Amino acid sequence: MAEPGARIIAIANQKGGVGKTTTAINLGAGLAEHGLKVLLVDLDPQGNASTGLGIERDDRPVTTYDLLAGDADLAAATRPTSFANLSIVPATTDLSSADIDLINNEKRMRLLRGALRTDSPYDIILIDCPPALSLLTLNALVAADALLVPLQAEFYALEGLSQLMLTVRELRAGPNPDLRIAGVVLTMVDRRNNLASQVEEDARENLGDLVFDTVIPRNVRLSEAPSFARPVLDYDTNSTGAFAYRALAAELIARNAGKEG
Ligand code: ADP
Ligand code: MG
Fold it and tell me: How far apart are CA 239 and CA 176, in angstroms?
């Protein structure tokens, strides 16, 4: 990488409830288990990643909003979590006004890029995007080296994806020529369900190598872990969800080694 600092991966899909936040937290934990220094940037006003990693709502004095507004630098906005090697920049509902507050800022699409592309102790920064192709998500895609898309195996999944890919092409032609696709990960997969299997087949046929070999199964432990303020890798270390996200972390590392080698 030519520029200093961490490799930045935006986790985005304009659909809600597809597993973005679950992937941000648990892929982050999986990468941290490999000894990488991981920072999760919560870019969703709902603040689910922050809550899921144990940062209480009334204990977020500095947030992603401050980072975007230029009122805090990365070090000041970052908090440790109880999981080793995993830190977070928390978000609050303030962030929901960012689209409007920043509209007159001529650098409005590049604010996050400016804040994250600095010398930092992190190997990798994951950005948990909100469920919209909003200015916030565009900031993430302009900041990122790569986009990782969680795709829930259901009927309309691929349609939404083509809109996201169109946005990627537009950004490549403009503010982020080097933006890559890290991959598409199928989430909440239940292979006993015929429709889900069909969607998986279609995705692999249409997207080829872009789809990670690793799939994330539906696993109730993944949905329970946030209320215990921990990644599933810690909450139930031997659950199928924990093993799936460990495998995804390993696959992401292996793919990247292949590309840089
Ligand atoms: P998004 O961030 O895209 O809106 P979430 O990660 O918050 O999606 O997931 C939506 C809901 O589905 C949450 O309640 C989450 O706990 C649950 N969930 C996500 N992935 C799984 C999974 N693999 N198995 C079971 N529940 C899951
Ligand atoms: Mg989310």
Answer: 38
pLDDT band for 2, please (50, 70, 90 cuts): very low
114 lines ligand 1 (CB under 6 A): no
Separation of alpha carbons 79 and 53, rounded Å: 10
CB 150 within 8 A of CB 185: yes
pLDDT score recorded for residue 106: 85
Atom of ligand 1 nearest to the CA of 219: 24
pLDDT tens track for 51-102: 999 999 999 999 999 999 999 999 999 999 999 999 999 999 999 999 888 8
Average pLDDT, the chain: 94
CA distance 181 to 47: 25
Q: Which residues, by Cβ under 5 Å, contact ligand 2, an ion?
A: 20-21, 48
pLDDT tens-digit readout, 222-237? 999 999 999 999 999 9
Answer whether 130 contacts ligand 1 (Cβ < 6 A). no
Atom of ligand 1 nearest to the CA of 15: 3
Computed over its alpha carbons, how large is the radius of gyration of the chain?
Answer: 17
- What predicted TM-score, i.e. pTM, was given to this entire model? 0.96
In contact, 5 and 123? CB cutoff 8 Å: no
Q: Measuring CA to CA, how many Å separate 156 from each of 37, 159, 198, 215?
A: 36, 6, 12, 18
